[in-house]
Amino acid sequence: MDTITQITLGAAVGEAVLGKKVGNKAPLAGAVVGVLPDLDVLANPFLNQVQEIAVHRGITHSIFFCLVVPPLLGWVLNRIMKKSEAGWKDWSLMVFWVLITHIFLDLCTSYGTQIFQPFSSYPASLNSIFIIDPFYTLPLLGGLAVALFYKPGSRTRIRMNAIGLAISTLYLLSGLFLKLHVNHVFEENYRNQQIGIERYMTTPAPLSIFLWTGYAESSDTVYAGLYSVFDDDREIKLHPIPQRSELIQPYIDQVAMERLIWFSNGYYAVSRGSETLLFHDLRFGRSDLWLTERNTPFVWNYRLLFNDDSTQVIGVDRFEPTFDIRSGRFRQLYHRTFGRK
Questions:
Q1: Cα 233 to chain center, whole Å?
Q2: Backbone angles phi, psi at 289, to 5 degrees
Q3: Which H or E element spans position 178?
Q4: What are the residues facing 222 on neighbouring strands?
Q5: Phi/psi of residue 196, each to 5°?
Q6: Can the peptide bond before residue 206 be classed as cis, meaning omega within 30 degrees of 0?
Q7: Is 162 buried (19+), middle (13-18) or exposed (0-12) by CB count in 10 A?
Q8: Residues 6+ apart with CB under 8 A from 106
Q9: CA 200 and chain centroid, separation
Q10: What would you measure as the largest C-alpha separation in the chain, in angstroms?
Q11: CA-CA distance, 262 to 120, in Å (whole number)?
């Protein structure tokens, strides 16, 4: 999730766990701990882009990290906050809950979170919330903001923060339940349109859990479609995307290529650029959010970098398209989200 949401979640959890004992120090410490897992990006200047893919949301987003770090960081916070009523165990418990909620929230996005590191690099993903979702963030932020106007430990302060956490958590869990319905609708369309799929995934479109994108793999083609839970009918227009996997077949066992396929979970397409091959991770959609019939660029792309005789992929270079962020696009997204095709 975005940094603002993780800071807010960390602060709200910190307030819920320790606010009664240490007052405003609890949300402050929670906010700082809330961004701790994402500091893995500080290693990026020392890594190439292939290594970055493996490191981000790696060990710092694992269950192992959640178990090892809290006692250590709890001891540090206890030393810093000597005059507070909280002890080492209290601070450790707060750190644990902030870290585990951070990781669970990231797990719900489509990026892929290596929660089983260092034992497995499997990029787990529930695909139930978009990386920026104001319906999740705003109740959380509102509850915390109102709570901070009241005296630490007061019933109203505790209640306001709890309400914000409850609403955002209910919304997050609703995404998981809605996904079951959305999956059923997409499966129904694959059958009705006689598309023999090998596997599929669904993930929320930007900014809410009400509009969903589905990707289904069939032979060397991926079918993409949009469905809103407010649609009057269940018919989905599916867009075929040729994967063209034959273009990367000579390099399929090379480290850079393996890493890209691993990261994309196999939902990718390849195209020829002006000078090299382009690898598109389809999970993040197109620049038009699949709202138009035009062939617009994909959002998440890599240029493959080859050696002199083009026999080895020696690296990748990520690039993004230019987004159409005019108000008309947001109007389209709003209308499509609420069932107007």
A1: 29
A2: 60, 25
A3: helix 155-192
A4: 217, 241
A5: -80, 100
A6: no
A7: middle
A8: 1, 37, 57, 61, 113
A9: 18
A10: 70
A11: 13
Q: Which amino acid is at 218?
A: S
Question: What secondary structure letter does DSSP report for 113?
Answer: B
Spatial separation of the C-alpha atoms in residues 189 and 251, rounded to whole Å? 35
Q: How far apart are CA 118 and CA 126, in angstroms?
A: 20
Looking at residue 174, what DSSP letter applies?
H
d(CA 9, CA 222): 36
pLDDT digits (tens, 9 = 90+) for 14-64: 999 999 999 999 999 999 999 999 998 888 888 888 888 888 888 999 999
Q: How far apart, in whole angstroms, are the C-alpha atoms of residue 143 and residue 151?
A: 14
Q: 284 to each of 71, 140, 172, 287, 301, how far by Cα in Å?
A: 37, 25, 19, 9, 10
Q: Is 209 exposed, middle or buried (0-12, 13-18, 19+ CB in 10 A)?
A: buried
Q: Which pLDDT tens digit goes with each residue over 103-145?
A: 999 999 999 999 999 999 999 999 999 999 999 999 999 999 9
- What's the angle, vertex CA 108, arms to CA 148 and CA 176, rounded to 5? 100
The strand pair at 239-242 and 268-272 is best described as unpaired
Please determine, for residue 180, whether its predicted confidence score (pLDDT) is greater than 80: yes
How are beta strands 199-204 and 277-286 bridged, if at all?
unpaired
Q: Give residue 115's pLDDT.
A: 95
Secondary structure element (H or E) that encloses residue 286, with its range: strand 277-286
DSSP-derived 3-state class of residue 316: strand
